[in-house]
Design a protein that fits this description.
Elements lengths: L4 E16 L6 E15 L2 E14 L5 E4 L1 H11 L20
């Protein structure tokens, strides 16, 4: 009997962010992605093995892994409630420390 097992990795886009890059110090757009690794059996993803959140600078390409809490906070800070007025563009500080 042949049993096919392995893992599958996928990346899910979560948000565009306006941040100051800690590498190149430019206020630039950043992308927030959720990277996941799943255990597969017969090419069907069954068990999540690992989740990571990564912020990548679109200017210099620098990427840094952040915690799930930081990723959630970055998403919330970039998308304020509809009842609040939109503020003019003001880049945030570099990524919060881990």
């Amino acid at each position: 009997m042949l049993i096919l097992f392995g893992w599958r990795r996928s990346a899910k886009f979560l948000a565009h962010l306006s941040l100051v890059c800690p590498n190149c110090r430019n206020p630039a757009a950043h992308t927030l992605h959720k990277l996941s690794t799943w255990f597969t059996l017969f090419f069907i993803p069954l068990i999540p093995l690992r989740f990571r959140w990564v912020v990548q600078c679109t200017f210099c390409g620098y990427s840094e892994q952040v915690t799930s809490t930081t990723a959630f906070n970055l998403q919330q800070s970039q998308h304020p409630q509809a009842s609040q007025q939109q503020q003019p563009f003001a880049p945030q500080q570099p990524y919060p420390p881990r």
